[in-house]
Specification:
This is ATP-binding protein. Keywords: ATP-binding, Nucleotide-binding. With 395 residues, the chain is of the alpha+beta class. The protein is built from 9 helices and 19 strands. 26% of the residues lie in helices and 29% in strands. The longest helix has 21 residues.
Length: 395
């Protein structure tokens, strides 16, 4: 379980905000631990649920399997994967639970929080009986059941929330607006790596975004010049792209301007270092999230970046003048010195047991951890666990 809430006694700084229902929420959450301990799986779970709720009805064909993987040691094979997500937005709070196999949804339940009782109450339930029949029930007249049933006919692989939105029902759109979007570099197979060479559709997409939004140029320029002392500016130029069908379309490409011995010269994105390209693409994702107030789930955030840049990236989310809509950053990281840039309520440690089951725990759940202690030094000393213990290999 990952919990973004903190005790009301947590010292207030720019990395915590108060929710509409009285909780204290962290805008930053970092996940640390050895390689292959299961860190990415925490992000994959959030990424999958977000995709399933938002896009399963539109992006999955009726006979297509649900892109979900269960624990490799699950017994029996039919044992479903289960998820539960509590979220708040637009002044509303919901609890969503899902039981699913690659073939179908076993159970899907949506609950709404009632401030007057302090409890969640069911408003929509979907279940499949053993004979395969669909049981669908709406409470408090949340929606038209017959319309939703029609939308879900022959769609055991789609979320009832996604189906409701596709049917044009505003009550479902309100739920999805409360959840928001998840911007992530994690897919079913884990982290989506940046190609080592060449241009990608993502580079053109990011270039097009910054062409349309010049109001973000100053912030991008400041970040790029801080990351690379050779970069002094950038330009976004129109280009023509040749498609597979042998026709062309207009696009845009970023060119980074450098100061050299003979003056200023420009390099297109594909001739830049992987670190500069990754920073450019990462910042585009963050700008979208900061503008909308959503959540970014980034695996190996330090990849291709110097450790000294990470605090600058974190400050995008902790500066209230920048993060006006209280967007959140949920990330994994191997630069453990970053532990001292987070509060104990913002640090998750993950370790894998001998039976291949991963356990995630928040640092403040350990007894005796003080707020003012050196998390980096104590982690390296093994005090908290979740640290690699490699054996010496003889050659």
């Amino acid at each position: 379980m990952v919990d973004f809430t903190a005790s009301p006694r947590t010292p207030t700084d720019g990395s915590f905000v108060d929710s509409a229902h009285g909780d204290k929420l962290s805008l930053l959450t970092g996940v640390f631990g050895p390689n292959a301990s299961g860190k990415t799986n925490l992000l994959k779970a959030l990424s999958f649920v977000s995709f399933f709720i938002h896009g399963s009805y539109k992006h999955l064909e009726p006979e297509e399997e649900i892109p979900v993987d269960r624990f490799a040691c699950s017994e029996p094979d039919e044992e479903p994967a289960t998820f539960e997500l509590e979220f708040e937005g637009k002044g509303r709070r919901f609890l969503y639970s899902l039981s699913v196999t690659p073939q179908k949804v076993n159970e899907e339940i949506l609950k709404r929080y009632l401030p007057e009782t302090g409890q969640f109450r069911q408003i929509l339930v979907r279940k499949f009986a053993k004979d395969g029949s669909l049981h669908l029930r709406s409470f408090e007249e949340f929606t038209e059941v017959q319309l939703l049933r029609k939308a879900l006919t022959d769609r055991p692989n789609a979320s009832m929330l996604a189906a409701g939105v596709q049917a044009g029902r505003k009550e479902f759109q309100h739920v999805l607006d409360s959840l928001g979007q998840v911007a992530t570099n994690v897919g079913r197979r884990g982290k989506r790596d940046l190609p080592a060479e060449g241009l990608t559709t993502d580079i053109f997409r990011c270039s097009e975004f910054f062409h349309k939004h010049p109001e973000h140029h100053d912030a991008l320029r400041e970040l790029l010049t801080a990351a690379d002392i050779g970069i002094v500016d950038f330009k976004i130029e129109p280009v023509r792209l040749q498609t597979e069908k042998d026709d062309a379309r207009e696009s845009f490409l970023v060119f980074f301007q450098h100061s050299g011995p003979k003056g200023i010269f420009s390099l297109p994105a594909h001739q830049e270092s992987s670190g500069t390209r990754r920073l450019f693409m990462l910042f585009e994702a963050f700008i979208r999230v900061l503008t909308s107030g959503d959540i970014a789930a980034i695996d190996e955030m330090e990849s291709d970046l110097h450790p000294h840049l990470i605090p600058t990236i974190l400050s995008l989310f902790t500066d209230p003048e920048i993060n006006k809509k209280e967007a959140q950053l949920f990330f994994t990281c191997h630069h453990v010195e970053m532990l001292n840039h987070l509060q104990k309520e913002q640090i998750y440690l993950v370790e894998k047991r001998e039976d291949c089951v991963s356990e995630a725990f928040r640092l403040d759940s350990l007894r005796g951890v003080r707020r003012e202690e050196n998390f980096f030094a104590n982690y390296n000393s093994g005090r908290y666990g979740a640290i690699p213990e490699p054996e010496v290999v003889a050659f």
